[in-house]
Structures are given as C-alpha cells and as structure tokens.
C-alpha cells in the first residue's frame, strides 16, 4: 500500500487555483445587444394585424469575484446586472446571481466543488448532447450560438450546469494498474413543495481504471431519485443508468488503433408502477487514428433499447413544444408561429438550463435519426465518422454517417429506418495561399431520410430533411472582419409522432406533415479588439415558407458588443 | 491486444442477441386502432334481456369494433325519460367498461319500464340499438329522510311566510326526479330572507336521533334540488342540529349545529351530496365555532332543518326538493 500515490497532489497544478497569485480576481463578461427587426407575412392577403417592427436590446454585465483565501481554495460568486434597452433609473433592471461555488483540494487528496458545478460523465449516463444545431457555427451564426451557449451554461465539453457538490480523487499504483480515478456528484433537481412534489436529487459517479496506455476501463452510474418523506406520497420516481466504458488501443508512432465503447442498463419508473421500464444499450467503436495524416476514422455499432431511459443523457436543450416569443403570432388570424431553425439561433429563452426527467418532444424535421443524440432510445445500427485536420491548419473536415433503425415499432411491427449524414469542411485560405490576414470559409451540410415501409398506407413514413450552409470570415483590415452566412434548410414528407402521457407511455399518434424550407442570409462586420472582445454589426434575413401555408420574412439588424474578462 | 479485440467483438453479438425479442412488440396503440377503417366486428349485445336492479343485478353490453374509437351508450327510459350515459374509448365493449348498476346520469331516475339503448361512435354514422326491460329499479342503501311519496310526515314542522304567490306543497307530476312526488318551495317575501321552512326531526321516525354511523367521514347527506330557469335568487340552508348531551333535545347555546348553504343557481335537477364532516358551522352565513363539543357527531343528529331563503331585495325564491337521504361510505348513486 505504501506504493499507492494520491493522484490529486499532482492535479492541483493544472486545476488553476491561484495561478496569478492574487487573493481576489474579477472575472466575468459584458455584453450589449441592439436589435431592430422587421416582420412581413408573405402571401396574397395583406397582414394588417401583426406589428411589423420590433426594436429592443439590453446591456448586461456578469461580474464575478474569484477569491483565493489560500492556495487550495477558490470561492466564486458572480452576479448579473441586466438593463433592458430604454430602462433607466431602476426600471427594467434585473439583478441575478449567475454563479456561485466553492472548490478546492482537501488534504492534498480530495478535490471538491460545492455550489454550481458543470458536470458530465459518459454519453449514455450524463451528457449534454446537442442534436439540433446541425448547421455549422461560423460568422454571424457563430456569434449568436456563443451567446446562446453562454446564457444556458452550455460548454464545448457537453456538461450540464447543476447545483450540488462534486468530488474526485485518484490513486496511482506501481504495477499492474497505472491509476484509478474516482468521481462523484450529487445535485438537486427540484425542491419539494411539502405536499405532492418530492425533493428530487441527481447523483452518481464513476471509477476509471487505467491499466496502461493500452487499456482503460470505467464503471459509471447516474441516478435521478426522489427523497422519501419529502412529500405526502409514497410514489417516488427513480431513473438509474449504469454502464461500463472501455478503451482498448494499440498506440504506435504512426497510428493508433483500438476498440472502445459503452454498454449498460437503465431502470426507471415510479414506486407504485406495476412494471418499470428496463432496458440496455451497447455502443462499440473500432477506431483508427493515422497520426501523420491527422485522420480519425471510427466505425461503430449502437443498440439502444426501446425502454432505455437516461435523464442525464436524454434531456434535450430545446423543448420543441415551445414557441418563440419573437413575433410569436402572425397573419390576420394571428396563428402561432412555429419554431424555426432561425429561432434556434436567435432566442436564448428556448433553451433549458438543467436536465429533465420526462421525455422531451423533438422536431423530426430537424433530427429524426438521433433526437436525443447518441443516447437516443429505440435505435440500432452502424455509423461511420471521419475527422480530418490538416496539420498546418489549412483545411479540416468532419463526416458523420449513421444508418439506423428502430428496435421496436411504434404502433406497428414495421420499423422506421434512418439515414443521416452530417458534414462540415473548413478551409483557411490564408494558410493555403500564405496571406497575412485571415480568410476562412465553412461549408456544411446534413441530410436525413426516414422511411417506414408498409402495405398499409397510414403506416408509411417518408421524411426528408436537409440543410446546406456556407459561412465565411474575411479579415479586410487589421482585426476587422467581413462576415457572411447563407443557409438553406428544407424538410418534406410525413411521419407519425407519438403522444405520451405523464408516465411517457405512448397513448396516441399525431400526423406530422412537413413541407418546410428556410433561406437565411447574413452579412456584417466584426472588429476583434482581442480574442475575447469584439464589436459587430450585421444584417440578417430569414425567409420561411411557414410549412407551405403561411410564409413570412424576418429581417433583423443587430449590433453586439461582447467581452470576457 | 489482438485477442482482447477479438474477445470484445465476439462478445458483442452475444450481448445484443440477449435482447428480448422485440419482433412481436410495439410501442403505443396499434396504428390500425387509430387510423384504420371503422367496422363493426360484432354487434351490440347485452348480458340480460330484463334486469332487476333491486336485487343487485347488473347489466353489461358487448360489441367489438375494428379500431379504437370514442363510443357512447345512451340508455333512455321510455316512461320516465331517465337517461344513463356510459362512455369509453376502446375497440372492445364488455363488462369491464359497460356495466350498468341501474343508476342514472340525467334525472329522473329509472322506473320499472322498457329502456331504449343506443350505441354511437364519435365521428362515425353507425348507430347500434337495442332494448332492455327494467323489472325493478335500483334501491339505494341509506336512511331516506323524505321522498314525499306519501305526503308530509305529521312529525315534521313547517312554516310559510305570508308573502306573495306562496306555494309550499307536495306536487305529483312529471317533474319528480325520483318516484312521483316532490316538495315545491316558492314564493315572494320582500321584507325577510326567510320564505319558508321544513323541519325534519328524528322524532318523526320514532327515534331521538337519525340512525346514522358515528363516523362523520363516512356519512353523506344527499338531496335532489331543482333549479328554476332564470331564478338565481334562491338560497337553501340546511341545518343539522346535534343532540350532543343525549337529552333528546337541541340547545342552540350549548350544542353543535352545522349548516350547509346551497345557492340554487343552476337549471334542472341536481343531486347534492356532502360528506357530513365537511359541513361547517355558520353564523349569519359566516364560518364560526360551534357551540357544543365541536365535533361532527353524525349519530347525534336529531333534526334537519330546510330553510328556503331569498334576498329580500328581490324576495323571490322558487325551487323543488326531493329524495333526501343519508348514506354511508359513499354518496347516493341513484
């Protein structure tokens, strides 16, 4: 046992505590956004009811105090002051606590964080998938996407913002096993109302055993559970997901090849349910990394049971049963405007900031193949991904292809089949031609095809969706960029969407007919003061055919000043 | 390394093969049940041709449809005009979803009579019909305080103000929701809230207290009340006087009286059922502390007062009452 080393000692240095040596630091961000939008209902009948213009905006500052009372403790508190455009002297001013936590290292062994934590485990247990933003972010869309992510606490590493506590520590061994890492968390999803709503918690963790650089193995669990006795009921809810992860690879100078994956089981339901939902999933990947080419190729097989439920991995960022508050009704009949692809980039209020325990509705026109990301239930099939990045940064490309089907039919024994391809290519012309100023372009596209064949007409499903996008950034003067975006999105066909009851059981189906397209154009300028500070002004136009019934056009001019410090 | 990869690749199909067979399972209702063609697979049938509800017999219906559909069975008494509605959503009708115990949905209650049966389906033109004979109507367990079928009990006390168009009497006509008779309460008094009253003492039945359970949570007071069209002025006040000290009389200053106010603001007959423990103590219409032991002693109720009230600004009240019954464990289901 003497040979066992505590890993956390070595972790402190890269954790960033007191890197500057200052006891107190100010961190945060500031943003000012001005918008002037116009809306026009298209079609033969003139819309005399809907307001045609909307102007607004806000200024906000997130001011955080990072206090390091000693070398191993960090206290963070961040408040937000937001002032809507036109609100002065206290009107339309909001004060919020945006972030608060304490973290540190206890006894040079145990790392902990209490308060707001950004956490994830594995793609099937606890993971913030992003299955709906399929159009590549660059140019204007990139700025808007960054704002959405910041507002909803989404990070590039797919964590969910939670409130609770997390700990981790590690052990190192001299032989047989290289190290073992332990991670654990407990968070609170919702408080009890002391009558019929339980105190709902979310907890779990994992143990990652690294045998060598060739083999890594993990055991993971994440569970949502109600605390008994916190409500006047005994019908508590529980969703538990347990999995094993593995990565067995051969690492050579020129290549790395291996097999990795995750397999596990889930169990969910209420205490008084006569039967609980139980199922398993398996996802295995054969991967090859050609180091000289900087090319990663993965061939995978997934089999996610129809009753596999994982609250932490199947929570969607957007609930598609919502409507946007931005020109929410139009035409003389004031019909509800459906969520569009444009809204996904324009309205931060659509996004959830925490996980949910029920099945959230999705838009089959946007992602029918994997509506809940790779953790989508009732899906099986193969997939192939290839990621290439030129070592000199001239060009990079990603291609993901999925060929999937349902495992259990919905309302019929016939199964839906899905083909899904998503690709993006980035070209940095300045590096190709040796220009000093940045000139880059993204070309992205995705295509989905859902098919269910049947001899019976009402069982047949055929739905096609796709998007093609171009985005560019050209540095026309020093630090001054010309931005441009174009995308076309289209969806046609039909599907039958399940209607679920409070227990998420399918009780009926509704006919879903799509005949949608959207065209989006944006152009503007951005002055990049530094990596984290920019000022941008742009104009964007979105033409939406209103699913073939009530087309409209939405134009918007925006000025955004954004900084992080 | 190579062996391990082979092992995992070998185990994976085995693992997947362990999945329980899904080939014969579907999620949700069959699409055929939702979007399929509508056909009557088996016609409407009934468990009995004639039924005696008084001895506990029940009647059920059967039919089968090709898809899940919203269906409605309407049973109409040919003499009484009573209507019973049974509704459901399924493709199969059987005893689990169509059993009829002889109760009514729309007053009056059923009598000994022939009933017409109609089975209809939402969105479909098909109507299946049948008939059944009621040998004896349903009997309701409980203590009937008054059904007015044999006139006013001489042990009751009544009072009628000297207003205009005073009409307090038992009437026998087609309005009766149960049996043939009901008590009419109508008149105009523009100087007092009280139009008239009927005091129903337990002594009229030869006992100091009504024969009820001592559990007020299991005791229900039920009455059928008729709301006249265009008349929302009528207020019925029910007072339940308890003989807390068991001396055979009620003392308002030292014993409990619980009161139930019913504004008669609907049209037609309506069954009002109230759990005795839910009836508050009122003083001038406002909740107040009872004057006795403060407990709902249903077994000590010695008198039920029915007061017909109306705001003297208009002073006009008009209603009818029938079938006053105490039941245990559940409201009456006539």
**Total helical segments of chain A:** 5
Helix content of chain A: under 10%
The major pleated sheet of chain A works out as:
22 strands, antiparallel, barrel
Task: Tell me the strand percentage band of chain B.
Answer: 35-45%
Overview of this protein structure:
The complex is a heterodimer of chains A (565) and B (334). Chain A is 6% helix and 58% strand. Chain A has 565 residues and is mainly beta. The longest helix of chain A is centred in the N-terminal third of the chain and has 13 residues, at 139-151. Chain A is globular and about 70 Å long. Chain B has three helices and 20 strands. Helix content of chain B is 7%, strand content 44%. By secondary structure, chain B is mainly beta. In chain B, strand 17 (282-283) and strand 18 (286-287) form a beta hairpin. The model of chain B has no long low-confidence stretch (mean pLDDT 90). Strand 20 (409-410) of chain A pairs parallel with strand 1 of chain B.
Keywords:
heterodimer; A: 565 residues; mainly beta; 22-stranded antiparallel beta barrel; two-stranded antiparallel sheet; 58% strand; disordered N terminus; B: 334 residues; six-stranded mixed sheet; six-stranded antiparallel sheet; 3 helices
Explain briefly what this protein structure is.
The complex is a heterodimer of chains A (565) and B (334). Chain A has 565 residues and is mainly beta.
Task: Please render the helix and strand layout as text.
The complex is a heterodimer of chains A (565) and B (334).
Chain A: E1 5-6, H1 8-15, E2 24-41, E3 53-70, E4 73-84, E5 93-106, E6 110-119, H2 139-151, E7 160-172, E8 179-190, E9 200-212, E10 215-226, E11 237-251, E12 255-270, E13 277-290, E14 295-304, H3 311-314, E15 329-330, E16 335-336, H4 341-346, E17 371-374, E18 379-389, E19 395-405, E20 409-410, E21 417-428, H5 429-433, E22 439-452, E23 461-477, E24 480-500, E25 506-530, E26 533-544, E27 552-564
Chain B: H1 2-17, E1 26-27, H2 31-35, E2 40-46, E3 50-52, E4 61-77, E5 83-93, H3 95-98, E6 113-121, E7 127-136, E8 143-146, E9 157-160, E10 169-172, E11 181-188, E12 194-201, E13 219-227, E14 234-242, E15 257-263, E16 268-275, E17 282-283, E18 286-287, E19 301-310, E20 316-328
Parallel strand pairs in B: 3-7
Antiparallel strand pairs in B: 2-4, 4-5, 4-6, 6-7, 8-20, 9-12, 10-11, 11-20, 12-19, 13-16, 13-20, 14-15, 14-19, 17-18
């Amino acid at each position: 046992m003497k040979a066992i080393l505590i890993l956390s000692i070595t972790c402190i240095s890269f954790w960033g505590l007191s890197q500057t040596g200052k006891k107190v630091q100010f961190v945060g961000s500031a943003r000012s956004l001005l918008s002037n939008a116009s809306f026009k209902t298209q079609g033969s009948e003139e819309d005399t009811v809907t307001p045609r213009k909307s102007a607004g905006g806000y200024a906000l500052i997130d001011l955080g105090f990072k206090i390091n009372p000693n070398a191993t403790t960090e206290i963070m508190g961040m408040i937000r002051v937001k002032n809507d455009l036109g609100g002065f002297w206290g009107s339309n001013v909001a004060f919020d606590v945006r972030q608060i936590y304490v973290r540190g290292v206890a006894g040079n062994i145990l790392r902990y964080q209490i308060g707001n934590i950004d956490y994830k485990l594995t793609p099937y247990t606890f993971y913030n998938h992003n299955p709906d933003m399929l159009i590549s972010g660059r140019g204007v869309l990139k700025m808007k996407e960054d704002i959405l992510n910041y507002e909803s606490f989404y990070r590039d590493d797919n964590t969910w913002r939670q409130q609770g506590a997390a700990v981790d520590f590690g052990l190192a061994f001299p032989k047989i096993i290289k190290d073992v890492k332990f991670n654990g968390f407990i968070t609170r999803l919702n408080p009890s109302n002391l009558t019929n709503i339980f105190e709902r918690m979310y907890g779990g963790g994992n143990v990652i055993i690294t045998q060598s650089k060739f083999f890594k193995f993990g055991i993971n669990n994440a569970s949502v559970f109600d605390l008994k006795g916190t409500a006047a009921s005994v019908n508590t809810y529980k969703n538990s997901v347990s999995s094993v992860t593995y990565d067995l690879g051969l690492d050579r100078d020129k290549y790395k090849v291996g097999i990795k994956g995750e397999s596990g089981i889930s169990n969910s339901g209420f205490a008084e349910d006569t039967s609980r939902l139980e199922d398993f999933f398996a996802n295995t990947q054969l991967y090859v990394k050609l180091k000289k080419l900087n090319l990663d190729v993965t061939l995978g097989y997934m089999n996610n049971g129809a009753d596999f439920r994982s609250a932490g991995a199947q929570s969607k960022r957007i609930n598609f049963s919502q409507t946007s508050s931005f020109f929410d009704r139009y035409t003389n009949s004031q019909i509800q405007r459906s969520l569009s692809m444009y809204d996904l980039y324009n309205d931060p209020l659509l996004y959830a900031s925490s996980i949910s325990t029920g099945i959230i509705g999705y838009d089959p026109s946007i992602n029918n193949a994997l509506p809940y990301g790779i953790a989508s239930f009732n899906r099986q099939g193969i997939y192939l991904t290839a990621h290439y990045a030129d070592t000199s940064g001239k060009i990079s490309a990603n291609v993901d292809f999925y060929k999937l089907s349902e495992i259990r039919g919905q309302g019929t024994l016939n199964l839906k089949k899905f083909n899904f391809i998503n690709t993006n290519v980035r070209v940095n012309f300045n590096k190709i031609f040796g220009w000093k100023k940045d000139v880059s372009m993204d070309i992205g596209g995705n295509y989905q095809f859902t098919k269910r064949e049947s001899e019976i007409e009402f069982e047949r499903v055929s739905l096609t969706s796709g998007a093609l996008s171009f985005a560019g950034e050209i540095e026309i003067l020093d630090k001054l960029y010309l931005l441009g975006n174009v995308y076309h999105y289209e969806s046609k066909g039909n599907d039958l969407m399940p209607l679920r009851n409070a227990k998420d059981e399918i009780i009926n189906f509704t006919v879903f007919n799509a005949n949608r397209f959207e065209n989006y154009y944006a152009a503007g300028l951005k002055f990049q003061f530094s990596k984290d500070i920019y000022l941008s002004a742009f104009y964007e136009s979105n033409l939406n055919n209103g699913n073939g019934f009530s087309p409209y056009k939405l134009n918007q001019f925006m000025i955004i000043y954004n900084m992080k410090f | 390394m190579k062996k391990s990869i082979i092992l995992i690749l070998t185990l994976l199909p085995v693992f997947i093969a362990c999945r329980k067979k899904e080939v014969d399972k579907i999620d949700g209702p069959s699409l055929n049940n939702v979007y399929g063609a509508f056909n009557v697979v088996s016609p409407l049938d009934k468990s009995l041709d004639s039924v005696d509800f008084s001895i506990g017999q029940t009647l059920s219906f059967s039919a089968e449809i090709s898809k899940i559909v919203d269906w409605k069975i309407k049973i109409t008494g040919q003499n009484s005009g009573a209507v019973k509605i049974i509704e459901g959503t399924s493709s199969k009708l059987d005893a689990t979803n169509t059993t009829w115990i002889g109760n009514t949905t729309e007053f009056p209650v059923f009598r000994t009579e022939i009933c017409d049966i109609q089975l209809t389906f939402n969105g479909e033109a098909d109507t299946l019909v049948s008939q059944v004979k009621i040998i004896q109507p349903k009997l309701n367990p409980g203590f009937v305080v008054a059904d007015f079928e044999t006139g006013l009990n001489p042990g009751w006390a009544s009072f009628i103000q000297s207003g205009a168009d005073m009409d307090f009497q038992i009437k026998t006509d087609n309005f009766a929701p149960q049996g043939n008779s009901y008590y009419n309460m109508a008149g105009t008094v523009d100087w007092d809230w009280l139009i008239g009253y009927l005091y129903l003492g337990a002594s009229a039945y030869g006992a100091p207290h009504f024969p009820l359970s001592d559990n007020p949570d299991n005791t229900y007071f039920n009455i059928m009340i008729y709301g006249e069209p265009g008349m929302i002025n009528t207020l019925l006040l029910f007072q339940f006087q308890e003989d807390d000290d068991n001396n055979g009389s009620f003392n308002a200053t030292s014993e409990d009286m619980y009161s139930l106010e019913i504004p008669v603001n609907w049209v037609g007959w309506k069954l009002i059922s109230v759990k005795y423990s839910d009836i508050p103590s009122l003083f001038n219409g406002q909740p107040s502390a009872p004057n006795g032991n403060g407990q709902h002693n249903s077994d000590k109720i010695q008198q039920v007062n029915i007061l017909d009230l109306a705001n003297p600004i208009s002073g006009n009240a008009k209603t009818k009452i029938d079938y006053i019954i105490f039941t245990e464990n559940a409201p009456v289901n006539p």
